Amino acid sequence: METFAEWGYLGLFVACFIAATLIPLASEIVLSLFILTNYDFTTSIIVASLGSWVGGMSSYYLGWLGRWDIVEKYSKLTKEKIKSYQSKIKSWDGLIAFFSWAPVVGDPLAIALGFFRINVYIVTSWMLIGKSIRFIVWGFLTYWGMMSIA
User: Fold this and answer.
1) Cα–Cα–Cα angle for 82, 127, 79, rounded to 5 degrees
2) Tens-digit pLDDT profile for residues 9-28
């Protein structure tokens, strides 16, 4: 984690990008490290949000490139089951992208949104809003924790 901090804001962006893909990494810890080492709070939140958003959109585009035959083969799901997921996701439209920050389900949601060709502009907006709110809340929790200890 300290390696990302040594790279400055670029390290924060890269850590958050990687964490927003299928590769597990705790971007919140990297953000906390930046806040605790007196990097600018607002800039850190913006960089973390943008890195996570770009990573999430890369998952969306990965899903966009997906093919039915590959999904059926590797997910062990039938086309009927996949279609039932599609109807649930389409009923929420791009609003479900708001939850792409969530652990465990967030990355598969982003991929599914791309796979089912949900409107990219709606997905982009809701994903950025969700990921930004997540880092704002985490940033204030870190700051509050730091102030209550001091």
Assistant:
1) 5
2) 999 999 999 999 878 788 99
Question: Among candidates 54, 66, 56, 48, which has minimal Cα distance to 110?
Answer: 56
Whole-structure pTM over 0.90, yes or no?
no
- Report d(CA 25, CA 27) in Å as an integer: 6
- CB-based contact 17:36 (threshold 8 Å): no
Q: Which residues touch 26 (CB under 8 Å, ≥6 apart)?
A: 1, 19
DSSP letter (8 states) at residue 103 = T
d(CA 25, CA 125): 24
- As a 3-state breakdown, the chain gives helix, strand, coil percent values, each rounded to 5, of 80, 0, 20
